[in-house]
Amino acid sequence: MRERIFTLAAASVLLCALSVAANAAEKKYDTGASDTEIKIGQTVPFSGPASAYATVGKAQAAYMKMINDQGGINGRKINLIQYDDAYSPPKTVEQVRKLVESDEVLLTFQIIGTAPNAAVEKYLNGRKVPQLFAATGAARFTDPKHYPWTMGFNPNYFVEGRIYGQYILKEHPNAKVGVLYQNDDLGKDYLAGLKAGLGDKAAGMIVAEVSYELSDPTIDSQILKIKDAGADLVFSATTPKQAAQAIKKIAELGWHPVHIVDINANSMNATLKPAGIENAKGLISVGYVKDPSEPVWKDDAGVKEYLAFMEKYFPDGDKGSNFNVYGYITAELMVKVLQQCGDDLTRANVLKQATQLDHVALGMLLPGISITTSPTDYRVNKQLQMIQFDGERWQNIGGIITDTGNE
After folding, report:
1. Per-residue pLDDT tens over the stretch 321-338
2. What is 290-335 written as a DSSP string?
3. Angstrom distance (rounded) from CA 290 to CA 114
């Protein structure tokens, strides 16, 4: 009897040991992840010509603090490491190398800007480090064939440009179009998309294509060129500073063209207010998120959660800023991906989860808009709403547009 009891006890100990070993074996980690922590990194233009985007990074940091206060992700705290790159690609390269090689992050999250992301894309793919939800809509960042470790978040600039082209054909078929565009992937993708949307009428309708460098102090001369070319519709494929300058200069000239601005430049605080609200009336753009300042959303659960978050975790931030809404939804999506990873926090599994999102609804997305990705379609946002500024706020015009193409 005593031997039998000893045998049973030994068996129980062995089973417990095997169970513990099995549970431990279920946990998989790469550099940057452990039982207690998940390290992710990003660069943000806290200074420099694109510092209007700094608040995005601040909102994201605040969101991660909220998640940590709630216990983290599957018991692990998020360590978000942020560096200022001043929107300078060489600085981005330096800081991202530091994040990967010194800080040893699991992944990069929401590096801000087209040129900064382009500067580190090959490096991160070579190291097989996920470059997730890059803050850009350039087509090169939704190219799984050539850059499988890179996924952009923003609506594809080419697709957005194509939507504007289709809108112009429908609403202003006889327009003489002048294009102001940033001389990088952002501006060039928008221009290519616009031409695709206009189709075989592009050559006859576009009367001016004028570029600028991000470092240019003003774009006054470019606006004069577009006006002198006889344009009566202007498409600004720009970032906030230049969009504001364009709106203001057009008003100073007493010129009244139809004016379309891209989604990156339709911020109330970063673009419209610096340009003069009275000068921005009639602007056309697109959107995909709820405006928390709109009365129509006052009882919306997602907006209430967002406002409560801002009140507690980012009280100095502008609750009505679409940049802060953007920071909030991108952080929310990043957290969902990490939650889906469970205890398999390898870089390969992080990428797998990010590329298998199925109709993910985020609290601040417009009703009817959700996020779906696949290993062959890295586009996170494929649905947009046309909007027009009425002098006080952006108003929806038309319905939700879903792009089904793979470009």
Report:
1. 889 999 999 999 999 999
2. --TTSGGGTT-HHHHHHHHHHHHH-TTS-TT-HHHHHHHHHHHHHH
3. 24
The neighbouring-strand residues paired with 394 are: 389
The residues spanned by each domain of the chain are: 37-155+296-376, 157-287+388-402
Q: Work out the angle between the directed axes of helices 220-228 and 240-252 (0-180°, nearest 10).
A: 50
Q: Fold for domain 157-287+388-402?
A: Rossmann fold (3.40.50)
Which pLDDT tens digit goes with each residue over 138-184? 889 999 999 999 999 998 899 899 999 999 999 999 999 999 999 99
For residue 112, give both structure tokens: 């801000």
Give the Cα separation of 338 and 407 in Å (integer). Answer: 27
Q: CB of 140 within 8 A of CB of 154?
A: no
The CATH architecture to which 37-155+296-376 belongs is 3-Layer(aba) Sandwich (3.40)
Domain 37-155+296-376 and domain 157-287+388-402, same fold? Reply is: yes
* 37-44/28-29 β-pairing: unpaired
Q: What is the pTM of this model?
A: 0.80
